[in-house]
Amino acid sequence: MPELPEVETVRRGLAPVLVGARIRRAELRRSDLRFPFPPDFAKNLQGRLVTGLDRRAKYLVARLDDGAALIAHLGMSGAFRIETLQDAGAAPLGAFAMARSKDPTHDHVILHLEGGARVIYNDPRRFGFMTLALEAELEAHPFFTHLGVEPLSQGFDARVLARLFAGRKTLLKSALLDQKLIAGLGNIYVCEALHRSGLSPFRAAGDLVKANGAPARSAQRLARAIRDVLGEAVEAGGSSLRDHRRADGSLGYFQHRFQVYGRTGEACATPCCGGTILRQTQNGRSSFFCPKCQR
Predict the structure, then answer these.
(1) pTM of the full predicted structure?
(2) Domain end call among 107, 140, 173
(3) pLDDT digits (tens, 9 = 90+) for 182-226
(4) CATH number, domain at 97?
(5) Shortest CA distance to 279 belongs to which of 271, 291, 295?
(6) Rounded CA gap, 292 and 57, in Å?
(7) Contact at 8 Å (CB) between 150 and 156?
């Protein structure tokens, strides 16, 4: 499933084409994705000007000139691509660990923009979805009411982690993946951030908080690692995105920088560690870690 950096990469790729553009026509090639489209979905998009494009956790939110907002989620296999008459067949936007489809049989939603560009949503497994909501009511929308803090927000730091984790005996990795605490963190980048900060996924989240409620040094390392890993992943996607029209469609992927994820049995990348990366199932997900340097 695309994680926060991939969704942010998609947002950055769509924004230059979508923001300020008017949707001439919305074409639906089926009646549903993961959920049915709301009544008059295509009709309500027709003629609308896109005034902004945001991301909340793993959701894309396109703000429209009539006070509505188009909410989109990529699900497991969803991807957007932009096509014009000059670059038909362009690569999907975003740098994903798994390749994204360009098979037109899986093109389910097409936004025809004034000027000739098309924004195409392709989703072989159809776990993604789209809907409309009032912009003024987004914070109360069922998709967003449960979401925690944004890890790429300006205020995200060790003090935030201390507030979220105080008194929690939950395992650290489970706490980081709890969307009610931190919105948008996924398995890949949690594994990477824990390794960078030298923290075991199996220690208690509350261990990162001092008795007086202040963040321990471990919380400071973790907050910095989360921001660094996510930031580097977004930049890696952005770099490949800028030349997404290359004929071979090749992209630069952040997975080439993974230090633990998917590297079971390989040597730990931490200098002078000498440990070996292990994989262990944790709450139904694979945890990749070094038992020697992650404590």
Answers:
(1) 0.86
(2) 140
(3) 999 999 899 999 999 999 999 999 999 999 999 999 999 999 999
(4) 3.20.190.10
(5) 291
(6) 32
(7) yes
